[in-house]
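Usage

Read records sequentially. Each one opens with the input sequence:
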Amino acid sequence: MSALLEVNGLTKKFGGITAVNNCSFEVEEGSITALIGPNGSGKTTAFNIMTGYLKADSGSMNFRGKKIEEPNPARLYRSGLSRTFQQARIFPEISVLENLIVASGYSWKALFGSRTTKADRAQAGEMLEEFKLSTLADFYASELSYGQRKLLEFASVLMSSPKLVLLDEPTAGVNPVMIETMERHIRERNEAGVTFLIVEHDMQLVMRLCNPVIVLDRGAMIARGTPVEVQNNPQVLDAYLGS
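and closes with the structure output:
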């Protein structure tokens, strides 16, 4: 497999604190890659830099073989890189179905006008069916449970047919049934050609779902390998036990 995403020497400081420290790694096309590490190791900061929500102090990123000079969330989304957040970002005051239509690239005016087509709404309906949210299509998104909001956000980022999806703690705060549901959707989408980079604290999920596993500590990569290799890496054990 070739590298779909290359991160080269990313560094980000907040005052005297170095959150990401000359961090470099690759995400291979077709993989489900985990990005793990102790609390404060820089995982979410790295995500925010890679997706254009934070500006790096130094370093660079290549996506699909092209250097991304200044990562911008909207441009990256259109080029095939999308993400979720620790707290699901949805539009609470419109319907579940309308959330997906907006995610597919429509403006608010188009959403409530005549520019959306039956095909667009059909695609959104199929996504809701896949995620077993079709019975909630006309509900306001604010009426969904926490886990359902996570699923809606995941479904939304898939509306643009992304090449790479960054999932930031997709199973945090959800029940075991929802974890199984989320895992199934990740596997199915990966089999359909979507690459994933996942920040996740549920190590059981990481070890059965992800390969390779990248470990950060104090903002830098300290290990990369199979789940078994990472589990048995003394440096990784020291990072977690000493955190």
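Summary fields computed downstream for this record:
- The beta strands are 3-14, 17-28, 32-36, 58-63, 66-68, 81-83, 164-168, 195-199, 213-217, 220-225.
- The chain has ten helices and ten strands.
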